Amino acid sequence: MKAIIVDKWLKGPEELVVKNVDLPPEPKKGELQIQVKATGLNFFDILMVQGKYQIKPPFPFVPGGEFAGIVLKSTVPQFKAGDRVFGSGNSFAEVVNVSASNVLPMPKNFSFEEAAGLYITYPTSYSALVLRANLKAGEYCLVHAAAGGVGIAAVQIAKALGAKVIATAGTSEKLEIAKKFGADYAINYRDKDWPEQVKKITNGHGADVVYDPVGLVETR
After folding, report:
1. Which CATH superfamily is domain 133-211 in?
2. 0.85 exceeded by the pTM?
3. What are the tens digits of pLDDT across the range 52-94?
4. This protein's superkingdom (predicted)?
5. In what order do the strands lie in the sheet with 95-99?
């Protein structure tokens, strides 16, 4: 099968190489063997192959954080061969063995491509906005880095909750992406007066919830 194998820290994703490797062994108890049909690509995947992420797996390793695919073999009763699933694991390979605890059934109306980006980004933003911030309908939610995976998820979740979403990003193209996914307002955070723009939009009230998935934006 084909897989991306990292055996040294890379300068960037352009150095990734697809290799022919053996199929994984039989899945262990509690594992599934899955044919990967689509895989997500997150910012931390890039950091991981550069050795800049907080988790540094031993060499060699298969990168990739999330996927969608079809169960080939199962060792647990809740899944069977042929099930369409999505989950988290070393996903940059055609076939992977992963813990069944990191896998969920795919929503019936989702494509593999859609489900491949569902497992990590959306729970991250849901936990922040719903479980932590208790965002409510009618509140202003300021989402920084709103064109990234976690940012887009935050925009969509905030809109679904009935909030008014103010998105920030660093380019006009990224601002258009945020608006495409539901942002009510879009501000370039490179503008020195972006805090004043937020105050103007909110009639001086300011944002009720500020969501910063990157941690690199100055706040005051």
Report:
1. NAD(P)-binding Rossmann-like Domain (3.40.50.720)
2. yes
3. 999 999 999 999 999 999 999 999 999 999 999 999 999 999 9
4. Eukaryota
5. 95-99, 31-39, 66-74, 84-88, 103-105
